[in-house]
Amino acid sequence: MAGSVHSDAYRSFLKALVALRNKRGMSQAELAEKLRKPPSFVGKYELGERRLDVIELLVILRELDADFGPFWAKAEITLPDRI
């Protein structure tokens, strides 16, 4: 189902977000601390157990020193025809 938390597009998005965190050399716990959230917050969205909203994504990208445009361009996400 295209709108599912576990759609191919969403899994690709999460993979790109995890790769960015790893590229920055940051652990889940370190990112959670920067976000002032418990480590489970990062773990749950990275595993797809929790869906991110756009504001959360932008704050996460800010803490990873990344801008949305370049992140999205490199993420190689194929969007579904329908949602």
From TrEMBL:
| Name of the protein in question | Helix-turn-helix domain-containing protein
Q: Which SMART domains match?
A: HTH_XRE
Give the HTH cro/C1-type domain ranges.
17-71
Highest taxon, organism lineage: Bacteria
Q: Which species is listed as the source?
A: Paracoccus shanxieyensis
The molecular function terms of the Gene Ontology recorded here are: DNA binding
Per its UniProt record, what Pfam families does this chain match? HTH_3 (PF01381)
